[in-house]
Amino acid sequence: MAATRYNSGDLRRQVGSPRAKNRDTKETLCRNVVIYGHCRWEDSGCTFNHDQNKASGSQTDLNSNRRVFNVESPSFTPANQQQAAGKKSTFSSQAASAAPFTPRGVGTSTPTLQQPNDSTIFNPAAIREFTPQNYEVGNTISQNGAQNVTQDGGLYSDPFSISSLGQTMPPTGQYNPYANDPNNLAGAGGGLYQPAGFGNGLVHPPNYHLYQPPSELYRPSLQPYQRTTYDFFIPKDRRENLQKKLFHMQQLLPNSGLPNLDRWHSLFPLDTKATRNSTCFGYPSWMYKAQNNKNGRHFALRRIEGYRLTNEKAILNVTKEWKKVINANIVTIHEAFTTEFFGDSSLIFVYDFHPLSETLYDHHFPPNHGHNRLRNTNKIPENVLWSYVCQIANALLAIHNAKLAARCLELSKIIWENNRIRLAACSILDVLHHDSPNRKTIEELQQEDFVKFGRIILALATNTPTLNFNNIDAALATMAPRYSTQLKGVLEWLIKPSAPGETKTVETLLGGMTTHLANFANFVMQESDEKEFHLMRELENGRIARLMFKLSVVNERGDSCGVHSWSETGERLLLKLFRDYVFHQVDADGKARLDTNHYLSCLSKLDASSEEQILLTSRDNATVFVVSYRSIRQMLDRAYGELGKESKPSTTGATI
To answer: pLDDT at residue 604 above 80?
Structure first.
């Protein structure tokens, strides 16, 4: 409040008498001193008293002809002292927000009189003092055990502290942005299935909005030849999906309690449920993401808990045969081994890791449906079911041709990602049942694959994961009104036993749905063309990035190659002027020209060594050069080559 809101000329202006008639203002304490502790008009014409000690002394002399009290005089006790004994004799905190008091005659040429009993006079005692509710000093201790103390020794509650942020998180677990229902994971054991956090365990997902282009609803009207910045790069949906995959691949879980295996570290749980389930393999199984010590790649580890291997040939023979099966709809297996690092005898299978994948069961029957899952009436489109049929048939073709059987065909053991499915639990039952006395032949197991295949599609078609397969005819009749007769016929062929003397084969299945195979192949090729188109645009961006690296290395380098101001002399000066021509242009008003199309166009012509000539001007407009992009490219290569001759070979990466 050091600056006044009035002009200095107005303060020196002579105005009328600042005090009212029959009233002595020199003995009246200024209200600015009472409220704020000082008055800004004390030296600018305020006629009120600004000495509190003098004011208090003058009040005792009123109505007593200025007599001073004697030491033997009785003390004065107000009548209402008992009622006001517990009341604080200070102004309310609301008085701090009151308007500043302006003395009469200061800052105005027409002073007005105001009676003491005017209702507009500010009365701090009439305002109720604010008292915080439900405030406990003990709650202001931060999460790390330190107290937040102000300068006056008091405690305060910081709304941006870690403890305050932690109150908005689940009480027993961390938030998982990759779970279908993250809140369900906050219960018992939920903390084992969360992504890595920063600081005190808080999760900070990548800020994708920093790269988010404007909404299409607010896209400005452009001419056919005009483009926006985001038109030159990968689409936002694909870029965000790739960024999420990279983020999910690099997730860590500090203090998880999971061990480090011989060649694997940084184990991260992938299961969305912390419950034991042994219905599929006969043993509880868990999924982890881990990183290999040798090559640094990430893999998915399937752990079979409590299994004790009795025959080492079971692992050697099975993994040797399954390694040869390479198919786009099968998760490739790499090896299998036993370990006791988990506190028991566990069998580990190593598969390729596909980030952001979820099981087919979780995708079509998410956990948030709860008890209403059996009453789910959402119809899966028929073209989606046909795509699943084509993909599973493709996987079975590769498996059966290798003289193997998939065996583990269940909704919870097939992973889904953007309508792409993969069989994710192959070879496990071959190891677990290797020495089983009732082991079936490969031909029998392959015939069972077709029955399990048909049950999967039928469960999806009827929206019933817990379908009672004892009455297949009723289930087929349920799906008949909603799907074509051809799909129903394929499911009947898969599920029902084959005729005597007939053996089901994948070739027979594929021959009966050639139309849908052609449609699926057409869809896959169109998607491949789209991805290739975006990849070609990123290829150009990569070439431009290499040119930017070279320009950045040469420009503004200073002393190099034994020459003072190496980058400011000779051909390097033209490279600096070219940098100004591309990135430092201004418009007619002297404002920076921000045109991504201009940047990309110039650098693309430089990369192609175009014969087009441009005008380069020094910053003082004293020198002008007319050169072509081809000449600039040759200058850039020579300058970068000179730096390469005197530098040592890189041991951490390749040169440009």
So the answer is: yes
What does the pLDDT read at residue 423?
Answer: 96
Phi, psi of 399 (to 5 degrees): -70, -45
Q: Round the average pLDDT of the chain to a whole number and report it.
A: 75
In 3D, which of 550, 566, 574, 533 has the Cα closest to residue 641?
Answer: 550
Higher per-residue confidence, 202 vs 29: 29
Report the run of H or E that residue 549 belongs to, with start and end. helix 514-554
| Cβ-based neighbours of 28, under 8 Å, separated by 6 or more | 48, 49, 55
Of the listed ranges 50-59, 106-115, 592-601, the least confidently predicted one is: 106-115
Identity (one letter) of the amino acid at 597?
N
CA distances from 20 to 55, 62, 104, 116 (A): 19, 19, 9, 11
Compute the C-alpha angle 51/53/58, nearest 5°.
Answer: 95
- pLDDT bin (cut points 50, 70, 90) of residue 318 is confident
Written as six digits, the tokens of 37 are 């502790």
Tokens of 8: 């200095």
Region label for 605, one of left (φ > 0), alpha (ψ between -120 and 50) or beta (otherwise): alpha
Torsion of CA 621, 624, 628, 629, to 10 degrees: -30
pLDDT at residue number 522:
93
For residue 93, give the amino acid letter: S
Q: Does position 453 have pLDDT exceeding 80, yes or no?
A: yes
Taking the C-alpha atoms of residue 653 and residue 656, their distance in angstroms, rounded to an integer, is 9
Q: How far apart are CA 77 and CA 80, in angstroms?
A: 9
Confidence at residue 4, expressed as pLDDT on a 0 to 100 scale: 45
Tokens of 321: 């045969």
Asked if residues 277 and 284 have their Cβ atoms less than 8 Å apart, the reply is yes
Judge contact between 333 and 322, C-beta under 8 A.
yes
CB-CB contact of 277 with 291 (8 Å): no
Q: Is the pLDDT of residue 565 over 80?
A: no
∠ CA 465-470-476, rounded to 5°? 65
Give dist(CA 518, CA 339) in Å, integer: 46
